[in-house]
Amino acid sequence: MNETEYLQKKAQFQNEMYTFIDRNHTRISNNSKRLCHFFELACYSRVLQYYRQQNFSISIRSPPPTNIFRFKATTSGIPNKYSFFRISRPSNLNDNKRIEYDIRSNMRVRSFYDDGDYIPDIVIAKASDNLDIQKIDNEDLISFCEVKYLRPHPEMLANFIGFVIELTPDLSVEPMDPQWIHPAPSLIVSGDSSPNVDSIRESMTNRYPVNFALNYENNSDGLIPSKKIPDRV
């Protein structure tokens, strides 16, 4: 990829996020030069778009100065130094009450089984006003996405299933709930797949409540709702 192609893709991915911020007053701070991080930013915006289609309102939570959206592109860094999005909408059970969730990037999440921590690329969690939050308790995790700026391969899909089992093994306990609106734990991959990968994907999605969004640079595969996660609403 030459420099012109790199700059075009970088602008394309970054501009997707401008759908959700005030373009006249807010700019994006992303110090990374790696295209995979800008693709992750684009995927972040597509998760927001998924929730917008579910009639959620979307607002920015950002440390001062609030006219800069600070994207956490890596696993390092103190979470309260970076921006995230709060989504909300009226509860189906009580129109006077709103349900709220936070969508964060590269945030630590505690394992379902022990005190080990994992860092998914995009995390959907119960809303928290704790400004010093360092990690998300497993019971507060709603769903998550892993993002890869690569072509998908069988080992990538298998590794993701391990991630799902470690963080959300309870996903498959309950039957499908038509009111559940969150995306399934998702592996989002930029490149298109091979017949072998397609065969493995079909088998895995029949066995696990997961979503493989492949060829996502061209947005050919979208996000899908998951099965209901018990006690995670």
Brief synopsis:
The protein has 233 residues and is of the alpha/beta class. Helix content is 26%, strand content 23%. A hairpin with a 6-residue loop joins strand 6 (108-110) and strand 7.
Task: Provide an overview of this structure.
A seven-stranded mixed beta sheet has the order 2-4-5-8-10-11-12, with helices on both faces. A three-stranded mixed beta sheet has the order 7-6-9, with no helix packed on it. Helices cover 26% and strands 23% of the residues. The protein has one domain. The protein contains four helices and twelve strands; from the N terminus they run αβαβββββββββαβαβ. A hairpin with a 6-residue loop joins strand 6 and strand 7 (117-118). It is globular, with a radius of gyration of 17 Å. It is an alpha/beta fold. Helix 1 runs parallel beside helix 2 (35-53).
List its traits.
single chain, 233 residues, alpha/beta, 4 helices, 12 strands
Strands, helices and their partners?
Elements: H1 3-17, E1 27-29, H2 35-53, E2 57-61, E3 68-70, E4 84-90, E5 98-105, E6 108-110, E7 117-118, E8 122-126, E9 135-136, E10 141-148, H3 154-167, E11 186-189, H4 195-207, E12 211-213
Parallel strand pairs: 1-3, 6-9, 10-11, 11-12
Antiparallel strand pairs: 2-4, 4-5, 5-8, 6-7, 8-10
Helix pairs in contact: 1-2
Low-confidence runs of at least 5 consecutive residues: 227-233
Give the overall shape, derived from the CA principal axes: globular
The residue-averaged pLDDT reads 87
How many structural domains does the protein architecture include? 1
SS content category: alpha/beta
User: How big a fraction of the residues is strand?
Assistant: 15-25%
Number of helices: 4
- What level of helicity do the residues show? 25-40%
Distance between the termini: 44 Å
Main beta sheet strand tally, sense and closure: 7 strands, mixed
List how many beta strands DSSP finds: 12
The gyration radius over C-alpha positions equals: 17 Å
Could you spell the SSE succession in H and E letters? Answer: HEHEEEEEEEEEHEHE
